[in-house]
Structures are given as structure tokens and as C-alpha cells.
Amino acid sequence: MTSHMPGTPPKPCPGPDRHPKRPAFAMPPGACDTHVHVFGPQAEFPFSEQRSYTPEDCTYDDLMQLHAVLNIDRAVIVHGGAHGTDNRATLVALDRNPSRLRGVAVIPSGLPHSELEDMHRRGMRGCRMSTVVSGGASFAHLQRLSDETFDFGWHLVLHFNKATELVHVAPQLQATRSPFVLDHLARISAAEGVDSGPFRTLLRLLDTDRCWIKLASLYRLSSEPYPHRDMLPMIARVVELRPDRILWGSNWPHPICPVAMPNDGDLVDLIPHWLPDARSQKLALVDNPASLYGFDPIT
After folding, report:
1. Cα 271 off chain centre by
2. Handedness of CA 155, 222, 77, 135 (dihedral sign)
3. pLDDT tens-digit profile of 36-59?
4. Element (H, E) at 120
């Protein structure tokens, strides 16, 4: 888990490329970016003292400007670890555009039912557990969070520090009733690949019919520069097996980015490489997010 020494300020986090290219790939109507964060403004929504990084302010308005350039109609705001379990920054953003936005909360188990009910009314549709950042919820909360949010129709989101963690948590995921999303292809790197234990575990979890795979921030997992062709064998396998369980996300504003900061227009232009036909593109970008997050049908 990423953390900082007590008494020292958390490491500053580079901001995103503020000059996104207009992509060549044309997003279909109703396309959804299922993995973005909003941070701050800090003057209104202070960061958690337990955070493990300090991002720049990356606000709702910044997100809307980005998606106007990328021609993206919908988004899922995954609550950012810098804000800990104080979900106000995400909830206030959801309040500003309820038809276009949904959210994934970072919460501990044991919250009052009325608080979960309010979050659901405002657009939250899942809760995230992480072994990457401090100040949030760990996998120890998995079963209780499943029990507490199941009747709302929420899903669980798992954010792995290492892909081998998937192997250890897989029995819990097999046993839970909730749908679950494996963030960032379960953090399986190109060097690990299709023959690794974590990837074989991922394929078994797809058989549950409750497992969703998020293709986001794969630039972190590649050993090659853009367009990261070494990731294609794993992507092609999951898209072939379950195109109805694939989600796409930009990961804007790319917190804790250990590689060169990507341009979000370039990331959009990877989509036709990953999803080579119109059917798989529409599923991953429009239909699958509408199903999982409860967006209205495109008219």
C-alpha cells in the first residue's frame, strides 16, 4: 500500500495534460468514461490527512471541458483516494449533472442505511476497496459492504496494488452475491500476461457472470511505449470471451502516474485497437455502462 511517513506531507501528484488532443476516433452517442476522479477544489473539499498523495485541483468543470473535447456524453466518478472516505467532492459533482453522471463511493462498512440511501439517490452505484492508497476501505470490508449495499443494486470495485492479490481474494468474490468490477484489468501487467495465475483467475471469475473488467490506465501495465501493443493479448482475450462485461475508462486525471503523463485524446484513440468492431465498441462504451450504472437508454 502506498503511504507516507507520519508527520511528512504526502507526495505531490503531477496534474493531467491540460491540452487534450481531439481524438480521431469518434465516440458513439451515449459513450461513457467509467473511470474518472474529481479532486477539490481544496478550499471547499479539503484532502484527507490519511491520504498517500496530493493531487492538483481537478474539478467538475475541468472534467466537463475534457469530455467536450473527447466527445464523451457520460461519466462515472470514482471517488478519489486523496479525499479518503469523505465523499462530498464526488457527491456535489454528481448533483450538478444527475442525468450524465454516476459515482462509485469510498466508504467503510457500517454506515447508517439512511446515508447509503442518500448516496444512492444522488447517483452512487458502487463502492471501491483499495490496497493501493491509504485512508479508504480495504478488502477486509468486502463481505460487509456487499451485504449492506446489495439491496441498492450496487457493485463492488476492487483496486489492486499487485495482480497476485486477485488470486487471494477470488474465493470471496466467488462467494459474494454482488456484481464486482476489477479495476485496471486487475493490475495484471503485460510482463505477467495471459499465462499468469492472476489472468487465469480473472478468466474463472468471468464465469460467475457477476465480474466486469475495466480497461483503464493500462499505460501503467505496459512495458512498451504508446500504443502499448504488449497489452493486446490480454485485452483481446477478455473482449472475445465477454464483450458484455467490458468497461472503458480514461483514468483522468491520472493520479499516481509512474510513467509519462498520457494525453487523453491519445487514450481515446486506443479504443479501436482494443475494441476492433462496432459491436464491441458500443457494448463497452454505451450498453455495458448503461446496464451497470443505471443510465437511461439512448433515444
Report:
1. 16
2. positive
3. 999 999 999 999 998 989 999 999
4. helix 113-121
How much is the CA Rg of the chain, to the nearest whole Å?
18
Report yes or no: 157 and 78 within 8 Å, Cβ to Cβ. Answer: yes
What number of CA atoms fall less than 13 Å from residue 292's CA on the CB side?
Answer: 34
Please tell me the distance from the alpha carbon of residue 162 to that of residue 229, in angstroms, as a whole number.
21
Provide the residue type at 96 as one letter: R
Residues 6+ apart with CB under 8 A from 209: none
The rounded distance, in Å, linking the Cα atoms of 171 and 98 is: 35
**How far is Cα 51 from Cα 233, in angstroms, rounded to an integer?**
35
DSSP E strand boundaries for the chain: 32-36, 74-78, 101-105, 124-130, 155-159, 180-182, 211-215, 246-248
Chain segment 220-279, per-residue pLDDT in tens: 999 999 999 999 999 999 999 999 999 999 999 999 999 999 999 999 999 999 999 999
Q: Which cell numbers hold the place of 146?
A: 456487499
Distances (CA, A) of 62 to 25, 48, 78, 156: 21, 21, 15, 27
**List of domains in the chain:** 32-293 (3.20.20.140)
Buried b (16+ CB within 10 A) or exposed e, 29-61: ebbbbbbbbbbbeeeebebbebbbbbbbebbbe
Q: Which three cell numbers stand for residue 232?
A: 493486446
Q: What is the pTM of this model?
A: 0.95
DSSP conformational letter for 184: G
SS3 for 36? strand
